[in-house]
Amino acid sequence: MQINFSNTNTIWASVLAETLKQLGLTTAVICPGSRSTPLAIAFAQQVPHIDAIPVLDERSAAFFALGIAKRSGLPVALVCTSGTAGANFYPAIIEARESRVPLLILTADRPPELRDCHSGQTIDQVKLYGNYPNWQTELAAPSLEMGMLRYLRQTIIHAWERSLFPTPGSVHLNIPFRDPLAPIPEAAALELRSHFQIEDFFAGVRTFTPNVSPLLGEATSTLDSAIEEWQQCDRGIIIAGTQSPRFPKEYCSAIAQLSQTLKWPVLAEGLSPLRNYVELNPYLISSYDLILRNQKLAQQLTPKIVIQIGELPTSKQLRTWLDDTQPQRWIIDPSHHNLDPLHGKTTHLRLSIVETRFIASPHPAPSSQNDYLQLWCEIEGKVRQAIDNKMIAINHLLESKTAWLISHTLPPETPIFIANSMPVRDVEFFWTSNNFGLQPFFNRGANGIDGTLSTALGIAHRHQSSVMLTGDLALLHDTNGFLLRNKFVGHMTIILINNNGGGIFENLPIAKFEPPFEEFFATPQDINFDQLCATYNLEHELIDSWEHLKQRLNPLPTKGIRVLEIRTDRKADAKWRQDNLGKFAL
Fold first, then answer.
1. What average pLDDT is seen over the chain?
2. Cβ(170)–Cβ(104) under 8 Å?
3. 447 φψ region: left (φ > 0), alpha (ψ -120 to 50), beta (else)
4. What is the pTM of this model?
5. With b meaning 16 or more CB within 10 Å and e meaning fewer, what string describes 56-87?
């Protein structure tokens, strides 16, 4: 156990860091600064038990921590100095709340007597992040009194628990420190060392495992009655939305069991792991967005009951269809969030889909497919074949084909981070169902482009070779993430769709208004990415054919960061979608 007895601040910070280590903290991302010196020292002294990673840019650091926490499911500590440093954490904290990712935000601060008096690098940091944290508080000023050290220990335990329960998210601790900030010896601190019983002090600190279903009994009772209703319905569908479960195969198996028991099709979002475990579920529907563009089919396929797993998919077509048809909807998700933006006839079962396998054992439905299920499966087969035929015939570099090709090409179980705007939509449209166990990750909580690169690097850090699919603007918005290159362990291949601007805006009504469209919405940046990569000493390669891309994606390297740039025509890409998306289901 590591306690630095140099002075009051080092003891205080050491108790904080040691408590977190005992709770299970594995990573601390630390931004440089003076006021946070005691925290930086405390975490540095916990290496190798805690991976302490220094990161220059606070916004990048926060998204890097977010990526690590997404992958592990455990809180990551994020440390900064006083002043506006902590304000740069805000976008990642918003994303953490909306996508349910645990973070521990530790902002160092000046003591109360140095606030509101124009002392340097001082702002009001109390409740800096509004209502976005799960919990927030300001710690007392450091003290050597044993009662106060016990208060610190228990507050840190509570903070850890609140970052995980009842729904994962961030916890903000504002931590004031008085001088001296460096580990300059103090007599009183050295005296404490002689009678501080370290083993006994930390004996009660245990790893916290949240009970994800606090209303388990109530939810179980509701589920039992729901199953009876579902079994009597021959026009039901299951919708699997955006999810990155820690155990994707178990998650997919649970949905498959429900699907095959009820004989209902599963509409699987492109960001769901289901599309990468197709052998588990014979009733998987991946082309629903394209199917529902055919109004006749959309009407024929109107369901009576919908079971929604997690959040709704990205597809606007699907959301509009559900809003228009207003089926009875059941949401299965353990969080306390409201996951119904359509405000329909909805009952929320606050369980994980995996738990339903053990709580209820529905009586199997008849073995034969019903007409409704058979219609879905037949249409899916035809549309999927039409997509494949169209993509195989495309030889020029087209943005939409990239997602389709990647789903066929990557090595098994490859993690892939998919950026917002057009990449996530092309994945929704064209990601082919496969058995490769590919692992999709994303920031679909707030759906922003900030922190794209840093999040992807956090997910890939100390794991297998990973891939990111992004547009040029999302990458440029976070190029400070490349400063992580010297601390990043592993490999990241960035597939860069460079259409010199915001391609998603080409699909909106504003695209017809020029000016101001090109300058104020498409916002082309005219960046030479080869030169940009050279600045950071990164490998860059311009892709000139689909075969070239396939060769670079399998196998993947094991170390470093590289950019594979695909240059496309933004307006031609948009026109291709406008001309083709509505035709696959004709």
1. 94
2. yes
3. left
4. 0.94
5. ebbbbbbbbbbbbbbbbebbbbbbbbbbebbb
